[in-house]
From TrEMBL:
Involved in the formation of 2-(5''-phosphoribosyl)-3'-dephosphocoenzyme-A, the prosthetic group of the acyl-carrier protein of the malonate decarboxylase. It is an enzyme of class 2 (transferase). This is Probable 2-(5''-triphosphoribosyl)-3'-dephosphocoenzyme-A synthase. It catalyses: 3'-dephospho-CoA + ATP = 2'-(5''-triphospho-alpha-D-ribosyl)-3'-dephospho-CoA + adenine. Keywords: ATP-binding, Glycosyltransferase, Nucleotide-binding, Transferase. One of its GO terms (molecular function) is glycosyltransferase activity. The lineage of its organism: Bacteria, Pseudomonadati, Pseudomonadota, Betaproteobacteria, Burkholderiales. PANTHER family: 2-(5''-TRIPHOSPHORIBOSYL)-3'-DEPHOSPHOCOENZYME-A SYNTHASE (PTHR30201:SF2), TRIPHOSPHORIBOSYL-DEPHOSPHO-COA SYNTHASE (PTHR30201). InterPro entries: CitG (IPR002736), TriPribosyl-deP-CoA_syn (IPR017555). Belongs to the CitG/MdcB family. Gene3D superfamilies: Triphosphoribosyl-dephospho-CoA protein (1.10.4200.10).
């Protein structure tokens, strides 16, 4: 197969809006989350993952499945932003998340498209909603601080639960940082790896699709993605990390051969049925932070 061009529906042009100046409504926050899921889906190549080009390592879902899921989740993100603005106890956010999972499964015929994203993006919507009623801050650092201040303790307590889902079980088995632990730490890979990678890519003048590609590989080099471990064990996780680091060492998304290289990596993942679903969620989270940070 020859290497198709980098596919990504362009986001809005990011105007220089002062970050503290405009308060975001829950509707605007929810819209940013839904669009961020679309940003993630639209990026291709994206090793092993579903896009509008192909279904990667998945034979039970395609881009239509993701679009159905995304539509089913629209109101959920708005509701999480509203609940966040009310600074409700964590149990209320969790109830809303569980109901959203049920809606996702109903919309996809029982396929898990966005369980991780419901958790990560839902929490970020709540944290952004809370930040809006406390000074209107919308930058990444303010959103992280809001998440930790309001729900940090509950997220830490939650890590003591015994995992029952495949990702949590794989994380425990291989002593990795699970999605729950990542949340309890205030999503360090998102805020300390993806956000700086996004800013670096933009400073280098990369367009949005290439920025997202660079951020995706930065995430895959660092995240303990429990989907990779669930399907491929530690060997699969290290295979993905090694490829991400080689991609970065060869110049990342700015390099002239970046797209051909990324498509080759995609095919290698498909051959091994590897799917970095956690990295996909974190990419959507980075797209969300960019959208709420810059768009009016
Ligand atoms: C805390 C939960 C996210 C559950 O976490 P847990 O780890 O216990 O269980 P999993 O659902 O198996 O894994 C978590 C999902 O989070 C994503 N993820 C993976 N690694 C990380 C990480 N290090 N940091 C953050 N996020 C991570 C990932 O989600 C994406 O992949 C899923 C699709 O993958 P796929 O390959 O198709 O896998 P499956 O269909 O599951 O299996 P196979 O086909 O391979 O056999 C998709 O969901 C993406 O979004 C992980 O899957 C939280 O959801 C939870 O506790 N839920 C329980 C109910 C609840 O309380 N909900 C309310 C929360 S507010
Ligand atoms: N695009 C995608 N493909 C496969 N799994 C995913 N989980 C979240 N986004 C995904």
């Amino acid at each position: 197969m020859s290497a198709p061009a980098l596919a990504s529906v362009p986001g809005a042009v990011h105007a220089a809006v002062p970050k503290a100046a405009v308060h975001l409504s829950p509707a605007a926050i929810g819209r940013a989350a839904t669009l961020a899921l679309h940003d993630e889906l639209a990026l291709a190549p994206k090793p092993g993952l579903v896009s509008f080009v192909d279904s990667g390592s998945h034979d039970d879902m395609d881009a239509h499945t993701f679009m159905r899921s995304l539509f089913a989740l629209r109101r959920y993100f708005v509701r999480m932003a509203e609940l966040g603005a009310q600074r409700v106890p964590f149990a209320e956010l969790e109830r809303c998340g569980i109901a959203a999972e049920a809606r996702m499964l109903a919309a996809t015929g029982g396929i898990n498209t966005h369980r991780g994203a419901i958790f990560v993006l839902g929490l970020l919507c709540a944290a952004t909603g809370a930040a809006q009623v406390q000074g209107g801050q919308r930058g990444a650092e303010a959103i992280r601080a809001s998440l930790r201040a309001h729900w940090g303790q509950a997220l830490t307590a939650r890590t003591q639960r015994v995992p029952t889902l495949p990702g949590g079980l794989a994380a425990r088995r291989f002593k990795l940082r699970s999605a729950s632990q990542e949340a309890a730490l205030g999503f360090p890979v998102l805020f300390e790896t993806a956000v700086p990678a996004w800013r670096r890519a933009q400073r280098r003048g990369l367009d949005l699709p290439r920025t997202r590609l660079d951020v995706f590989f930065a995430l895959m080099a660092e995240l303990d993605d429990s989907n990779l471990a669930h399907r491929g064990g530690l060997e699969g996780l290290n295979f993905a990390r090694d490829h991400a680091r080689s991609f970065q060492a060869a110049g990342g998304a700015a390099d002239a051969h970046a797209l051909a290289r990324a498509w080759d990596i995609h095919r290698a993942f498909v051959a091994r049925r590897l799917s970095p679903g956690g990295c996909a969620d974190m990419l959507a989270a980075a797209c969300f932070l960019s959208r709420v940070g810059h768009e009016p």
